[in-house]
C-alpha cells in the first residue's frame, strides 16, 4: 500500500523539537511535497486541569498548544490538515494527561503508554535502582555535609539507570522482563481507564507507538519478542472493541535490511490486525526533513499486510 498520510509529527510548538525550520507552515509545505492527502500535527500537551504533570510537560499546556491552530495555512493544495495532539499516559499511577472534555478541542489524540525513558513518571524504577540511589545520596551527604537534603536527592536522582548499574554490586531485577511486563500491564490499565474510555468515545483516539519501549537497540528487539502473545492478543481485542486505532510508527520498526520481514513489531501489528484493530501511520518526526521517514511506511504496510481497508475511517480522504 502506498501510504499518503502522516498523523504523528512534532514541530517547534513541542519541546522535543529543536529544528528552527520546523514551523507549522514549513511542515505543511513538506507534507504537500511528499504527496500526502492527510497530514496531522500532534505536539505534546498536558491538560493543566490534570494534576501530576512532570517538569517537562508543565510548559506544554493546552492553551499554548492551541496557538498552533492559527498557524495552519489556508492553502494546503487540497491536502487535509488535522490538528491533533500527543498527551501522556503514566502507567505507574494510572494517570491520563488529558481529560475527555478537553480532547474535543482536537481532531484526534495520540496516547502513548511506552515512554519508558520517563522513569519515575511513566514507569516506576525497580527497587534495586531505588536502593542504589538511596545509598548514593547517603554517600554524597557524608562527603558534602554542607549540601542540603534536597540538593543531595537531586544529585542522586540525576544519574540515568545505565549510569547507576556500575555502582550496583548485583542488580536484583531482570530489567528487560520488568519492561516487557510493564508494556502489557500499562496498555491493559489504559484500556480500562475511565477517562480514556470517555476520550475514545469522544474523539478519534490512537495509541502512539503501541508496545514499543523507548529503549532502543537489541534490548528493544528482545523486549518486543518476549511479550506474552496471548496477553498481547487480549489487549488488541480490547482496543478493537473500543474503536481505538494503532499508530504504525516507522521508528519502531528497526529491521530495514530484511524489508521488515524479521522485524518483531511486524508480528505485533499482524496480531492487532487479526483482532480487528484499525491503523494510522506516523513518522514521529521532530524536524522538517524527518518527515521523509514516512516513505518507509510503504514497505512496513506490505510486511504487516495492511491495506486501505485496515485504516481508520477518518484518515481516508
Brief summary:
The chain has 317 residues and is of the alpha/beta class. The protein has two domains: 5-121 and 175-315, Metal-dependent hydrolases (TIM Barrel); 127-172. The protein is 38% helix and 12% strand.
Main beta sheet: 7 strands, parallel
- Taken together, the total number of domains comes to 2
Q: Predict the CATH topology of the largest domain.
A: TIM Barrel
Radius of gyration: 20 Å
Number of helical segments with 4 or more residues: 13
Strand percentage lies at 5-15%
Query: How are the strands ordered across the major sheet?
Result: 1-2-3-6-7-8-9
Quickly give the structural class. Answer: alpha/beta
Mean pLDDT equals 94
CATH superfamily of the largest domain: Metal-dependent hydrolases
CATH architectural type of the largest domain: Alpha-Beta Barrel
Name of the level-1 CATH class of the largest domain: Alpha Beta
Low-confidence parts lasting 5 or more residues at pLDDT below 50?
none
The arrangement of helices and strands along the chain is EHEHHEEEHEHHHHHEHHEHEH
Compute the number of strand runs.
9
Percent range for helical residues?
Answer: 25-40%
Shape: globular
End-to-end Cα distance, whole Å, is 15 Å
Amino acid at each position: 500500500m502506498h501510504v499518503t498520510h502522516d498523523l504523528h509529527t512534532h514541530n517547534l510548538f513541542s519541546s522535543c523539537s529543536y529544528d528552527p525550520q520546523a514551523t507549522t507552515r514549513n511542515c505543511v509545505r513538506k507534507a504537500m511535497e511528499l504527496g500526502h492527502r492527510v497530514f496531522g500535527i500532534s505536539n505534546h500537551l498536558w491538560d493543566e486541569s490534570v494534576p501530576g504533570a512532570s517538569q517537562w510537560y508543565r510548559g506544554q499546556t493546552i492553551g499554548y498548544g492551541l496557538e498552533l491552530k492559527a498557524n495552519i495555512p489556508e492553502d494546503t493544495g487540497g491536502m487535509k490538515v488535522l490538528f491533533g495532539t500527543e498527551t501522556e499516559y503514566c502507567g505507574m499511577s494510572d494517570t491520563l494527561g488529558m481529560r475527555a472534555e478537553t480532547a474535543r478541542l482536537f481532531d484526534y489524540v495520540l496516547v502513548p503508554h511506552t515512554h519508558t525513558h520517563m522513569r519515575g513518571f511513566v514507569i516506576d524504577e525497580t527497587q534495586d535502582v531505588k536502593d542504589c540511589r538511596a545509598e548514593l545520596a547517603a554517600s554524597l551527604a557524608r562527603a558534602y555535609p554542607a549540601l542540603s537534603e534536597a540538593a543531595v536527592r537531586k544529585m542522586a536522582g540525576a544519574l540515568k539507570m545505565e549510569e547507576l548499574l556500575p555502582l550496583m554490586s548485583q542488580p536484583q531485577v531482570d530489567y528487560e522482563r520488568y519492561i516487557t511486563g510493564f508494556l502489557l500491564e500499562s496498555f491493559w490499565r489504559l484500556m480500562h481507564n475511565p477517562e480514556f474510555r470517555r476520550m475514545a468515545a469522544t474523539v478519534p483516539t490512537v495509541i502512539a507507538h503501541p508496545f514499543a519501549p523507548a529503549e532502543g537497540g537489541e534490548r528493544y528487539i528482545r523486549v518486543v519478542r518476549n511479550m506474552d502473545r496471548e496477553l498481547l492478543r487480549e489487549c488488541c481485542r480490547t482496543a478493537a472493541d473500543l474503536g481505538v486505532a494503532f499508530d504504525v510508527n516507522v521508528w519502531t520498526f528497526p529491521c530495514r535490511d530484511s524489508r521488515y520481514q524479521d522485524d518483531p513489531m511486524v508480528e505485533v501489528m499482524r496480531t492487532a490486525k487479526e483482532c480487528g484493530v484499525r491503523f494510522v501511520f506516523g513518522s514521529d518526526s521532530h524536524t522538517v526533513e524527518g518527515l521523509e521517514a514516512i516513505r518507509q511506511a510503504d514497505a512496513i504496510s506490505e510486511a504487516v499486510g495492511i491495506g486501505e481497508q485496515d485504516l481508520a475511517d477518518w484518515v481516508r480522504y
